[in-house]
Amino acid sequence: MDEIQSEELKVSLQDKIDKVLTEVGKVVVGQQYMVNRLLVGLFTNGHILLEGVPGLAKTLTINTLSKALALDFQRIQFTPDLLPADVIGTMIYNQKEGSFEVKRGPIFSNLILADEINRSPAKVQSALLEAMQEKQVTIGATTHKLEKPFLVLATQNPVEQEGTYPLPEAQVDRFMMKIYVGYLNKQEELEVMRRMSDMNFSPNVQPVLNKQDIIDIRNEINKININESLEKYIIELVFATRQPKDYGLKAEAEYIQFGASPRASINLSLAAKALAFMNRREYVLPEDIKEIAKDVLNHRVILNYEAEADGVKSSQIIETILQKVVIGK
């Protein structure tokens, strides 16, 4: 009986995920890839960094997704004059009580949209570090736990360099995935133009998943089977970024300055399990790992100046690694 109820719960959760995609689709045209990766991050407790030129619906997608989730949502617009206290909060003096009290910042929410995160200086960006890694913030002498789930979804614009502050590698590594958002195809852009040209266009996005659903989904993902050969395959992929010459990648070795951190191995396994669950499977396939590898690795493979001079991108290096490293090697 328990097994039947467990199976019913799993199917119900998977149906709700499909419904979330439908609700987001009421507003956002295309960008299924981005929405899929945002859900992977949500279900595995991993922060997501979105990078793309303006106008690709990065902010709109996150806003719409938040409406399909019965979670607290806050948007923080990062600007050069933003202060750490504007993010995490501060101590204020209560004249009536004659004492200091904590005024909580917008970080105290379930979903945080850090819009154009690279527009604020390092001091503000570092204010996110403790929250992202430890799921807590310190204001004054007191540490405050953040609510669960807690997820930072950040966007950055790669085009304008003036007035931007590149994220330190330590902070970038705390993002589970870095997603490059591309242009829509002609048919999708035509649909966007038609929708947005209608000034009465105002779809009603219904909340589908609540906090308990997300906890249940995380528990189900934890049950997904990944066999030992695939676990070792993940390790081989990550080690190929650190010691490329050992894998016959002599040309690529000339361009790699630093390989992926241990967080890459952990996140590859988690993300592959999430993909398997979302595809209604109880086990991970090699295709799951290959599908998610670029998103997990592309911001963790740090290239040198020679790569920049030769126009070599980290995605190209990762693609070659995926072709060279075989399962069971």
Give an overview of the whole structure.
The protein is α/β, with parallel strands linked by helices and about 325 residues long. The protein has 2 domains: about 15-200, P-loop containing nucleotide triphosphate hydrolases (Rossmann fold), CATH 3.40.50; about 225-325, Orthogonal Bundle (Helicase, Ruva Protein, domain 3), CATH 1.10.8.80. The protein contains 14 helices and 11 strands. A hairpin with a 2-residue loop joins strand 6 (about 135-140) and strand 7. The longest helix has 24 residues, at about 1-25.
Structure characteristics:
329 residues, alpha/beta, Rossmann fold, Helicase, Ruva Protein, domain 3, 5-stranded parallel β-sheet, two-stranded antiparallel ribbon, 14 helices, globular
